[in-house]
Structure formats: structure tokens, C-alpha cells
Design brief:
Radius of gyration: 27 Å
Shape: globular
Number of strands: 0
Amino acid sequence: MIDRRRTIQWVLAASVTTPLLASCAGTAGIRPRLPKTPQGYGTDPNLTHVYRSGELWPLTFTPAQRRTAAALCDVIIPADSVSPGAASVGVVDFIDEWVSAPYPYQQEDRAIVIEGLAWIDDEAGRRYGKPFADLDTTQQTAICDDIAHEPQAQPLLAEAARFFARYRDLTTGGFYSTPEGRKDLQYIGNVPLARFDGPSPEVLRKVGLDEVPT
């Protein structure tokens, strides 16, 4: 059995001899493989810590943008008899965190979302003289219907339709990762079981494995 003291001694010895090995490799005409300077966005998060919204990086949405974002979330996934609306379960916080992250993909979404929220408020003002969040459901739906299907959108609405498609994806992704969204889907995973007897006959038939010999 190797004790902790012996292990630490080996690690320290290895750290001392590494530069010597690199030097010897260089004199022999062999280029040592040195570690590259790490490129990243900071240290890894502590996965056991519950982070508050905005704790990892500054958030993006202004109060006005949050109102528009919440109204649009609830047009996409409104409350019904089965589940609450998307905005009431924190989907706006999820989207704000997403577009505020300092990664290239999220920064691309940030530009799409910010410009799209501005467009939808401008369009609400042009049509009805009010911000999008202050419109009634029929008026909000009328605007969204014109940009809801990207291939069928008018040429002048192509960018707005691209925004709506991405915002709809973010809204549904945020909603269905919440407990309320999983319940709405009747998702039964992530639940400890006292026993597991394998897939049911119905599942095996569904995937064509009901006649496989055991």
C-alpha cells in the first residue's frame, strides 16, 4: 500500500525533473511537446454551488426588454389548465443568462435576440401604438403569426422570422427543462426507483425488440 506521503514525494520529484527532460530533448534535436497557453473564459464553475442569476457574468436585458421578452414567452407557451406560462417559471431569466454568456454561439444569439425584441416592439407601436407587452393576446398573436414560419414569411420580415424561430427554440428549451415543463411532457426520468425490471413489453414492441431471445 502506497501512503499519501510517498505519493506526494513522487509528484514533487516529477515536477523537478520535467524541465531537465525538456532540456535534454532539445539538445538531442527533438522538440519537446510543451503545453499550450490555455485559452478560455476563466475558471470552471463550482458545480455544487447554486448560482444566482447574473452571478457568473453581467446580464443583458433592460427592464423594458424583460417585459417584451416575458410577453413573447407567454405567446409561445401560454398558461393553460395543465401548466403555467413560460414567463412565470423563469424562462426570461434563462434566456437572459444565455444571451449574456461570453461564448461565440451565445453572443451570436445575443445580437439576434436584442435586435428581434427591438423589432417586435417597433412593430407593435407601428400597428397598434403600444409596446408589445401592452397589447392584448389577439394583437400579439397577429404580429407573431406573420413571422412564425420562416419559409413563408414575407421578404421584408425574413430577419424577424429568423429571430422568432431562434427565440421560440430558446423559450421551449428553457421551459421544458423546468420541473413544470417536464411535468407537462409527462417525463418520468430522473426519479429513483426501488427496482427496475427492464423495458415494458410495449416499449420493446415499439422498438422492434419484442421477439429478441433473452
